[in-house]
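The following record pairs a protein chain with its ligand, zinc ion.
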Amino acid sequence: MLSVIYSEEFLQHKTGRSHPECPERLTAIVEALSQVDWKSQLSWQLPTSITERDVLKYIRQVHTLEHIANIRKIAATGAGYLTPDTPVSHRSYEVALLAVNAWLDGVDTVLEKNNPAFVLARPPGHHATKDQAMGFCLFSNAAIAANYALMKPGIKRVAIVDWDVHHGNGTEDIIQDNSQIVYCSLHQHPCYPGTGYKSDRGKYNNILNLPMAPGSTIDDYRPVFEQEVIPFLENFQPDLLIVSAGYDANHEDPLASISLQPADYGFFTQCLIKITHKIVFGLEGGYHLQALADSVVATLVNCL
Ligand SMILES: [Zn+2]
């Protein structure tokens, strides 16, 4: 069984009309997963409520108190903007806390079952730095989850693979001085947010940035996965793998210029499954609804 961690509460983070990071992203995925002929192999799980787990304890490990307070304050006013592209609505603070909880549940579930899980949550996280929300992201879900995992018995090394089309500057910012976490990102370059140079390697050579040229296809990605991503992970031997699973490198996606097809994410998944079955997939970007939904299906079917 594959766990999918999801709550309709995640639809309550409202970003306004015509914003690409919209609640319909999740409902499109839920709809697609309800129609696959292997749906009986999915185990839908609600995230732990924010009153049940002190999630702020884990968020404070990576974000400043000012950052957390700022999001809470703006949401409490009813709505506002953290940056021009990162709106918050009345419920966004609580929803973002619940999203972090869902990622932490992903860690718990994967370690318990030794099988992949998919965290179907929003807002996304990989652009959020220690002290700044940006790029539709409030809290750094993947980095918080990685730190959380390292508190578990027997977990000494956590790898984060980020195949979102944008570089996860926030994740890199948070983990770059941590010898127990490696971060590997494939991203379009040049593109938002402008970071992710191959020469940025982290304090412990724990960062592997793999910039991809606009127009790249699976023929460009395949050798990079086989010759760079896999050896990097095999060398590190992670006890847990967290995937910042963004799907905006699809050809149809309106926010970037990479030309992957949804089925290509199945290839990525096959590569990672060979490293470990302990994989937490967490949703980051992906803004063409059909391509997004098809890509999540391609990811999960390759975990069966
Ligand atoms: Zn993205």
